[in-house]
Amino acid sequence: MSGLPNCVECNSEYTYEDRNMYICPECGHEWAQGQNTTDDDTPVIRDSNGNTLTDGDTVTVIKDLKVKGSSLVVKVGTKVKNIRLVDGDHDIDCKIDGVGAMKLKSEFVKKV
């Protein structure tokens, strides 16, 4: 076994890796390594360590994040409870104490 995932379009087992992309030589489909999908075509969202995230999880921020349009900063180690996964570039919807409703990228959090 090569350990690479099957193609998400045609289920071919002959996928190969090119930098941070998977490519299927049979149908030509390309997708990013962090954006694998399950059989029901829902995206699998992973944290910075590669753990799968689900709705209701608790995560910790791993980097200081500036809040756009404000002077607030979400500090490293801030615990965010009860996240909700959404589609888009910022794939986590949550509420942070002292800041309010925010959207975060999963690459800047780790699962607790």
From TrEMBL:
Q: Can you give the residue ranges of the Protein YjdM N-terminal domain? A: 4-32
Please provide an example of a Pfam family that matches this protein in its UniProt record: YjdM
Ranges of residues in domain Protein YjdM C-terminal: 45-112
| EC nos | 3.11.1.2
The top EC class is hydrolase
Q: Name one GO molecular function term.
A: phosphonoacetate hydrolase activity
Q: Which UniProt keywords are given for this protein, alphabetically ordered?
A: Hydrolase
Gene3D superfamilies (alphabetical):
2.20.25.10, SH3 Domains (2.30.30.40)
Q: Which family does it belong to?
A: Belongs to the YjdM family.
Q: What protein name does the entry list?
A: Phosphonoacetate hydrolase
Q: Which organism's genome codes for this protein? A: Paraglaciecola polaris LMG 21857
